Amino acid sequence: MGAVNGVCYGVLGDNLPSRSEVVQLLKSQGIGAMRIYYPDKEALDALRGSGIAVIVDVGDSGAVANLANNPSAAADWVRDNVEAYWPSVIIRYITVGNELPAGDMGLILPAMQNVHKALVSAGLSSSIKVSTAIKMDVVANTFPPSHGVFRPDLQRFMVPIARFLANTVSPLLVNVYPYVSYRENPRDISLNYATFQPGTTVRDDGSGLTYTNLFNAMVDAVYAALEKAGTPNVRVAVSETGWPSAGGFAATAENAMNHNQGVIDNVKNGTPKRPGPLETYVFAMFNENQQTGDETRRHFGLFNPDKTPAYPITPYPRPAVQSIGVCYGMVGNDLPSRSEVVQMYVSMGINRMRIYNPDREALDALRNSGIDLILDAGGFDTVSYLAASASNAASWVHDNISPYYPAVNIKYIAVGNEVVGGTTESILPAMRNVNSALAAAGIGGIKVSTAVKSDVIANSYPPSAGVFAYPYMNGVAQYLASTGAPLLANVYPYFAYAGNPREISLNYATFQPGTTVRDDGNGLTYTNLFDAMVDCIYAALEKAGAGNVRVVVSESGWPSAEGFGASMDNARAYNQGLIDHVGRGTPKRPGQMEAYIFAMFNENQKTGAATERHFGLFYPNRSPVYQIAFPN
Questions:
Q1: Which CATH class is domain 5-303?
Q2: Per-residue pLDDT, 318
Q3: Which of 177, 417, 582, 593 has the fewest CB atoms nearer than 10 Å to its CB?
Q4: For 189-193, 448-452, 500-504, which range has the lowest pLDDT when averaged over its residues?
């Protein structure tokens, strides 16, 4: 997960804008994620096709109790509130309970389990995660942060919840309010420290880390508690944070602006304990005049009900390159060092990378970089080795994963890249063995897949006719569905165009306007070849009984020289088009998608056609081959 700046959309007011107006306001401000506190059908309808990701709360403790006590109620809830909207509404998490009191916390885990099972049955558990939102008072000993531990009286609830989150690769949602801590203890906590202003440095002797703001210290106290619960790989997502602009002690527009601007600016950096992108939701979108409790509760909004800002905030950054990665090939004798390459990714805001073997120097350079990684296991021989025995896979995981994860955020392991011939029969057993080895090592956050060429699809036109050309792919697809892993696919409109320029227009292949293609099989309209190729894979997955498997485009690109249609102008048009397009998804699967451009560099030792040496965005001296604008 890349950095996320979201807002909480509360509706406790009698003077608030309509749901559709709110969604338009979010889009105009570049806010790409939001939280709602119950499955508000009008809000969910307004979110269709918006590209805004949403956290949906199930409701109050009564709703949680119903889901905990009745599995069929959970299935009905998922049908009515998730399946009815997905994927046109990008539901990121389902929150089972918001700050439930100790007396109700026993309901959380069974409710989460029932909702998760319903998502599994619906084929959505890989895309939508189930969690709960806790208050900071669930954590004791929050100073220094390294002493954080779940409260003794709540450990019987929180430790099993944390284990569930680890097993399902879900984050813990935490409502983090430096304002409340400051208000309760202004003698020991400075206002500057609480509002991201300079002047305070706090060292945690337990961890050796230094803190310059209270927010990060509070988040790291939660991470310390998760470690003590035996779940160090569970990620924290800050599901609420904010500061009131009026109505109480230190509640001023200036303090609110400083705190919330600090939160917005902080997400790309993370915390001292977990550097890298952080997911955070500011409470709240509006000042809500029907909020109960003390007067400050009615003054947490970034906006007034008339949609004017409550105070100046630098506009939210547009979504970072969280869904675009770049493949880092190393087949050259003049390339920069691994550490220099990682610094290039970081400096350009490229948050995802693919490497084609477990290169130790590259993995070391990636530690704590915040870059998500696709790690290829290796070549065809490695696939056969992993398939041969469980012990081989265990040794591979021991040598190549355990020494690096989670400091290196390995997201997927690709068991084979464009495997052909008899080795294709080794893909599925190799994937099974690697998954078993990860489980035995206690690593639950990495998905195992394989990367395929587009020629595994037959009947690629129209997209709805797509079907797998080889029987082994049906087994692979069904296995991915069972593990919640995506299918990695290398999608190259360039090769389709170069092979058939009479039938495929250059504009259609390079995201340029002028071509519209209707698929009579599904009624969808296509304006670029990339979408058609991806949707063809989705059609094949559906026919294999794995329609809910997500496609991750693990390679795509266009050469800039040495071949038909290979020019800088075409390469720039295609790759810029891909960068700009991924936030919208495809006609069949609208919403943000994940894609990796091939490649970072022109690699002078690539074999094959001359174009193979000219797919890079950069020359080996790190100068750009042509100008490309990444969103951030």
A1: alpha beta
A2: 45
A3: 593
A4: 500-504
